[in-house]
Amino acid sequence: MNPVNNSKSPLLSLPAELRTQILSHVFDENLNHNGLISYDCPGGLYLDDEYTVSTHLQPLLVCRQLYADGHHLAFAKTYFVMTNLFFSVPERSSRFLRKKTIESIRHLTFVADARHFRALEEWGMYPFGMPNLQLETLTIVLYRSTFYHYVFDFTASVVQLLRNLRNVKRIEFVRNAALVKGSLKTWYNRLVGLIMKVDHHERYEVSPPRVEGTWWVWGFDEVEQRFWLEAREAKALVDEETYLQGILPLMEELRVSVEGEEWNPDPRSRRHYY
């Protein structure tokens, strides 16, 4: 990046506050591109193979001053998509990004296979085990190959992660036309069922009660073949009857969803049904 003579640049002659407002409008457009596309055909959303983060950060290359003014803003308004299965978020980010820059990232997507699902158990309370990463959206895209995903093997570990996870407002799981034993919707239903089962157990069947750190609300999109969980504050500890009355609508929604799921005869797909 080369320095620009302020006397020849109307933009750089503006006050910093105005330059920041202009850059905010420029990078707002990035939020319309999340790295996923739909071909209007069976299979739902797909990972966009042509999506690149660098394309959406190009205005920062104009000069050093605009980079200084706008790089935190640009990182907050850009979807970072990692398709390399061997990419280590903690390692690469600490090597190439400053702490304040990492704190600016709000949208992160990564492609996952079984290794990534196993690694979720090691995250602890924060995404990727990084306390300075504060995400509005975390998207997990299933790796598309000729092999099946046995996502039911990870139902229990995902539920335990969700109970304690912080610094993530929304998590999405996207099928990406990958092969899933038992179907993505079946896994979603079992995941939701176990969330409620574990929550009840931790509140009323252990002493002292262990209330979740984060409660989640959820939804499934049949057409796009994805589901999401949005973070909410932990539910208050109330008597069991009041709790069951409050959870009853969620149980009814789950019952209806289960009745509409696809059936797969493979016994491994039912390994963690609850």
From TrEMBL:
Q: Which InterPro entries match?
A: AN11006-like
Stated name of the protein: Uncharacterized protein
